[in-house]
Amino acid sequence: MQFNEKLGAVEAILFASGEPVDESRISEAAGIDKSIVSSMIKTLNNRYSDNQSAINIIHIGNSYQMCTKKEYAEYIKAALEYKKQTPLSNAAMEALTVIAYNQPVTKSFVENVRGIDSSSVINSLVDKGLLEEDGRLEVPGRPVAYKTTDVFLRSFGLSSLEDLPPLVREDKDSQTSLFDEKNDNNQYDE
User: Fold this and answer.
1) In this structure, are residues 156 and 100 in contact, taking their beta carbons and an 8 Å threshold?
2) Contact 73/30 with Cβ under 8 angstroms?
3) For residues 76 and 68, is the Cβ–Cβ distance under 8 A?
4) What is the pLDDT averaged over residues 21-47?
5) pLDDT range class, residue 32, cuts 50, 70, 90
6) How many domains does the chain have?
7) How far apart are CA 13 and CA 26, in angstroms?
C-alpha cells in the first residue's frame, strides 16, 4: 500500500468510528507503524486546514477522533436539532474539579473536600458520561473510585489530564479573619 492509500485508510477508520480510536488500533488496522500515526494525523489536519475544511482530528490521550471544528457547531445544532446542553451547576463543577485533579477518588473524598453530600452530583456526572467508575479500593467497605472520561476531556477541550490548568492554592497565612485581626481602635484591648 502506498502512502496516500494508507493515509486514506487512517482517515476512513476515524471517519467511520465516530469515537476516539486508540493509536495502536489505528496502526494495526491500517497496517502502518505506530510511530508514524501522529505524523499521518498531522498530514490529514494540514490537508483539512489547506482546504478550509470543517473537519479536524483531535488528540485525546492515546487516541484520535475526527470532529467538526468548533466554529461550525451552530450549523450542526440547527441541522440536527440538538437540544442545548444545560450547563453544569456550581456543585457539579466543584465535584468534577476535585475528581479531575485527584483521581481516582471515592465519593467520600469528594464530600470531605466539598463539605456536603455529593451523591446526586456524582451520579449526574456519571449519567452525562463525564465520570466513570474506576474499580473499588482495597480498604474496608471497598468503596467505588471515580475518574474522568474521554467525554470529559473532549468537553473541556483537553488532550490529556496533563493539560489541566494548575490549581491556584490559597495561602491561609495571607487571609485574616475578623478574630485574627487586632483592632487598634478596640476599647477593650489592654
Assistant:
1) no
2) no
3) yes
4) 93
5) very high
6) 2
7) 7
d(CA 126, CA 56): 28
pLDDT at 106: 93
End residue of a domain, out of 38, 73, 108: 73
**Which of the four pLDDT bands, split at 50, 70 and 90, describes residue 2?**
confident
Share of the chain above pLDDT 70, in %: 86
pLDDT mean over 135-147: 90
3-class SS string, 52-119: CCCEEEEEECCEEEEEECHHHHHHHHHHHCCCCCCCCCHHHHHHHHHHHHHCCEEHHHHHHHHCCCCH
Burial class (CB in 10 A: 0-12, 13-18, 19+), 170: exposed
CA 135/CA 146 separation, integer angstroms: 8
Residue 65 lies in a domain: yes
Query: 46 and 102 share a domain?
Result: no
Q: 121 and 55 share a domain?
A: no
Q: What is the pTM of this model?
A: 0.57
Summary mean pLDDT of the chain: 85
40 with 6: CB under 8 angstroms?
A: yes
Residue ending a domain, choose from 45, 73, 101: 73
* Residue 98 in domain: yes
Domain that holds residue 48: 3-73
